[in-house]
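[Meeting: bench + compute handoff]

Bench side (C.D.) handed over the final construct sequence. Compute side (W.E.) agreed to return the predicted structure before the next meeting so the bench team could plan truncations. Sequence as handed over:
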Amino acid sequence: MSDPIDRTGLAPRFWERKRLDQLSTAEWEALCDGCGKCCLNKLEDEDSGEVALTRVACRLLDDASCRCAHYDIRHQFVPDCIVLRPGNIEDNLYWMPATCAYQLVHEGRPLYDWHPLISGDPETVHRAGASVRGQTVSEFDTPEEDWEEHIIEEPT
């Protein structure tokens, strides 16, 4: 007997039964909670290697939806945008937000209750305050030397 299918067309709780490298493209994309934090510019301490998120958004982040405005062609505008994949997740954990579903699943931890795959509602990430909706500043309007003034705290 197969698993029931939810309204996304994906098997319920697929992320609990599959490794990241076993996910289909649709499953991989569905893991994104839509917080927008991966599209924030980060600052890395040269001595400690610690990475801090800032409110300074990539030029392609739509602040209202917390999604990339040109996701499929983003490399035409931002050539160094990192495409997170199962094969490079180990190398990229250091800059990912603490609440990121890819990081949580990779580490065998559960998704938060506000994650759309748990709640069934893409707005719960925003209502829970886990997204950057309405909180970003433009990288065009914010000189890089001022980015430290826009560091945001991440839950641990």
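W.E. noted at the follow-up: Residues 15 and 142 are 38 Å apart (CA to CA). C.D. will use this when planning the next construct.
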